[in-house]
Amino acid sequence: MPIISVIVPAYNAEKTIVETLHSVQNQTFSDWEVLMIDDGSSDRTLQIVTELKDPRIQVFSYPNAGVAVARNHGIMKATGDYIAFLDADDLWTPDKLELQLRVLQDNPEAGVAYSWNYYQYENPADSYADTSPRFQGNVYPDLLIKNFLQNGSNPLVRKEAIASVGFFDPTIKSCEDWDYYLRLARNWPFVLVPKVQVIYRQSSDSVSSNIEVMEDYLLRLINRTFQSVPQELKHLKNQSISWVYKYVAHHYFIKKNITSTQVQLAAKNLMKAVLFYPPHCWDNYTQYMAKGILDHFIEKLQNRMGFLKPAKF
Fold this sequence. Notes:
- The model has no long low-confidence stretch (mean pLDDT 93).
- This protein has two domains: 4-207, Spore Coat Polysaccharide Biosynthesis Protein SpsA, Chain A, CATH 3.90.550; 210-304, no CATH class.
- The chain is 42% helix and 17% strand.
- By secondary structure, the protein is of the alpha/beta class.
- Helix 9 packs across helix 11 (284-304) and helix 10 (260-276) packs antiparallel against helix 11 (284-304).
- The longest helix has 21 residues, at 284-304.
- Strands 1, 2, 3, 4, 5, 6, 7, 8 and 9 form a nine-stranded mixed sheet that branches.
């Protein structure tokens, strides 16, 4: 049996799935199996993966039911001692599995290893690495505030930890991974590989592009989660809600060809973020968004009033 099972849920992923699976095939650690769960794709995803002819890649097809159910199918079929999740449009650096496995073996009490992320946008100039998360050990309070793992392609998890929390919740859309990490963090220490190892692709047709749905489910998750947190952690709820509004503002702010309506929505959510947690006023990115929003409205006002740029002589 392989040491690591890699679960790859895929829905209409013909444009990215080969590169994603190649990033697994190129791992320096090679004792793995891939369980590619075809979630009712209607494009060439299934055909493309079958043509790879790699015996370590197993393909299972089910009617479309969403990413949570697809991951659950993978969990049920996994035979490895450790389980990794990889979305069909993301990539790993070649040492991702090797280093995460090593840090878990060096810390037998830990249930989850995670790494830093590189945000890859369609415009390369917008791409960046986020090396800010540095939480280890009991990360539950930090994870209550925000999902610092940031996506569903990051963690390597002991199978015992998976067994202790069960399956992903299919009733939660857009943030089922955060819910799952919270359940893990309540029972298991986390360890960090302080290296960028996950290439998190950002595209206009991703799940997070449906901002209103994402906001709704994030707030539902927070309200549900804080009903059962220990009393000494309940004060973190406002900070958690603030993070959601800041996150939503960010998604409006970075849209291509942003409209005045979207700028207004970004401004509205950024104001909510500050109201729920005033210290966000001093956050560099909050100030960056606030300046961008203000510049947009100043330019719009100048255009409306007929202001002209000074003539060049």
